[in-house]
Amino acid sequence: SAVISQKPSRDICQRGTSLTIQCQVDSQVTMMFWYRQQPGQSLTLIATANQGSEATYESGFVIDKFPISRPNLTFSTLTVSNMSPEDSSIYLCSVVGTSNEQFFGPGTRLTVL
Amino acid sequence: AQKITQTQPGMFVQEKEAVTLDCTYDTSDPSYGLFWYKQPSSGEMIFLIYQGSYDQQNATEGRYSLNFQKARKSANLVISASQLGDSAMYFCAMREPDSSASKIIFGSGTRLSIRP
């Protein structure tokens, strides 16, 4: 199984500011996924990040709000820009394992005041 | 469009009993994968079990088994001999391959509470 770490594990931010979340995987992976889980809700895919190309965003998510970097095959960042209280969520990165499993990082719990 | 349905928002089960969490799915693609995840109050998503649409046998992982009924588009999770530590949210999910990315979508979840 893939070992995934995320930083920070949690943060409390003021509205209007930005937060960058880091995701590190212990092995090289082609695709990394970023999900959001709003309070009491299920997970929603934000975007798919491929190394060497622009991220692919899902409907309702835009690059200006959630810019993503993917500089190499083991690392990605997601920035939540110009935050509002509605952005308070758990943000999780995810990768596909060698046997089609999909693993998730421990998540970043974001609170926006 | 693909869809995952979990009809049980919450369940209470006595410790040591078996429990079945329901999941139905809808897809027109013959090739897909089904997942179950456990999410404790800490927020992490713990992978439990995976079933491929072409797998001949139901997947099992320790106390977890997936009751895969392809014709009914059903993928229920069975937990045998439940333990207090099984109390958590459980999510069913599906991956449908496409040309750009094999992303997965989630059901709404079932909150399982184990009574001592």
Please describe the topology of this protein.
The complex is a heterodimer of chains A (113) and B (116).
Chain A: E1 4-7, E2 10-13, E3 19-25, E4 31-37, E5 43-50, E6 56-57, E7 68-72, E8 75-80, E9 89-96, E10 102-104, E11 108-112
Parallel strand pairs in A: 2-11
Antiparallel strand pairs in A: 1-3, 3-8, 4-5, 4-9, 5-6, 7-8, 9-10, 9-11
Chain B: E1 3-5, E2 10-14, E3 19-21, E4 24-26, E5 33-39, E6 46-52, E7 60-61, E8 64-69, E9 74-79, E10 88-95, E11 104-106, E12 110-115
Parallel strand pairs in B: 2-12
Antiparallel strand pairs in B: 1-4, 3-9, 5-6, 5-10, 7-8, 8-9, 10-11, 10-12
Task: Supply database-style keywords.
heterodimer; A: 113 residues; mainly beta; seven-stranded mixed sheet; four-stranded antiparallel sheet; globular; B: 116 residues; six-stranded mixed sheet; 51% strand
Q: How would you portray this structure in words?
A:
The complex is a heterodimer of chains A (113) and B (116). Chain A contains no helices and 11 strands. Chain A is mainly beta and 113 residues long. In chain A, strands 2, 4, 5, 6, 9, 10 and 11 form a 7-stranded mixed β-sheet that branches. Chain A has a 4-stranded antiparallel β-sheet with strand order 1-3-8-7, with no helix packed on it. In chain A, a hairpin with a 2-residue loop joins β7 and β8. The N and C termini of chain A lie far apart (36 Å). In chain A, 35% of the residues are buried. The mean pLDDT of chain B is 92. In chain B, a hairpin with a 6-residue loop joins β5 and β6. Chain B has 116 residues and is mostly beta strands. The chains are: A mainly beta (113), B mainly beta (116).
